[in-house]
# Entry
Amino acid sequence: MGMETLFTHFEEPGKINTQQTLEFAHDRAKELGVTEVVVASTTGATAYKAMEIFKGFRITAVTYHCGFKEPFQNSMKEDVRKDLEAEGVLVVQATHALSGVERSIAKKFTGSYPVLLVAETLRLFGQGTKVAVEIAVMAADAGALTGNDLISIGGTAGGADTALLLTPAHQSNFFDLRVKEIICKPRSF
# Structure
């Protein structure tokens, strides 16, 4: 019953791992027969790379909500969004599932906030793990997912460095989400 270890560590976090993360995720998805992938993509760059590697997959790219960086401005340009959608990528622009209004409350008031605690707990495994879980919830809530197991890909400050096999869930049943495998993640973060 000796199963081969498929889990890979990167020595450093960040976008330098994007290509390798996408390739590891693709290979594992093929092995498992998983046909759905969710990828965090602020500007569209990671989504374009995923589109090249995950040909024939159902791809959902999740980006920041309008106003995340600048009031009333989108992080992903409209022409990029339209191009990705024309190529069959579902683009979800949504409020962070693991902060949302709580982040605003935390800025104004002191105290502990459950959703922010969940986010910080996931960050114990690295920023990319938190992102991969969060974007799966955001995509589920946007109606972009089938509900089947999928590969969710997140990163640390741009690009991708973490890939998870998971069963997605909506915010309303967040604790039904299951991280089944860590395909890759950074060792140092």
Remarks:
- The helical segments are 18-32, 45-53, 78-86, 101-108, 114-122, 127-141.
- The mean pLDDT is 92.
- Strands lie at 8-10, 36-40, 58-64, 90-94, 150-154, 162-167, 178-186.
